[in-house]
Amino acid sequence: MDQDTPEADRTARTIAENVYAAYWQQAQGTTHPQTEQTLLARLVEAIRPEIPGGSPGAIIAAANAVLDALEQRSPGIRGPRVSALNRADGTVAVGPAGG
């Protein structure tokens, strides 16, 4: 099945899952599982257009915009932002939200 998925889609999904995991590991507040799944889907949607030629900075900005939107919709949730991305393997580093 993985062979049927375009490489850009797999890459976007990997990065989104890493952002998701890093965010929830440090996030404060509570949410519903549906909110978490919506966040993952929105991360994939935001990151996917940046995969073919986007810089790591563009991918980071797309992911952070999704996290900003989540926190605007759910004021009780606060978490870190993506600060670095390794495009080769999709790993991310997070740091405090910028304000």
Overview of the structural elements:
With 99 residues, this protein is mainly alpha-helical. It has one domain. It contains 3 helices and 2 strands. Strands 1-2 form a two-stranded antiparallel ribbon. The relative contact order is 0.19. The model has no long low-confidence stretch (mean pLDDT 90).
Write the layout of secondary structure elements.
Elements: H1 7-26, H2 33-47, H3 56-73, E1 81-86, E2 91-95
Antiparallel strand pairs: 1-2
Provide the spatial order of strands within the biggest beta sheet. Answer: 1-2
- The tally of beta strands, per DSSP, is 2
Fraction in beta strands = 5-15%
How many domains, in number, for the residues?
A: 1
Let me know the average pLDDT.
90
Low-confidence stretches: none
- The helix/strand order is HHHEE
Distance between the ends: 41 Å
* Percent helix: 40-55%
* Broad shape: globular
Task: Give me the Rg, rounded.
Answer: 13 Å
Largest beta-sheet characterization:
2 strands, antiparallel
The class by helix and strand makeup works out as: mainly alpha
Put simply, the count of helices is 3
What is the compact description of this entry?
By secondary structure, the protein is mainly alpha-helical. The chain is built from three helices and two strands, in the order αααββ. A two-stranded antiparallel ribbon has the order 1-2.
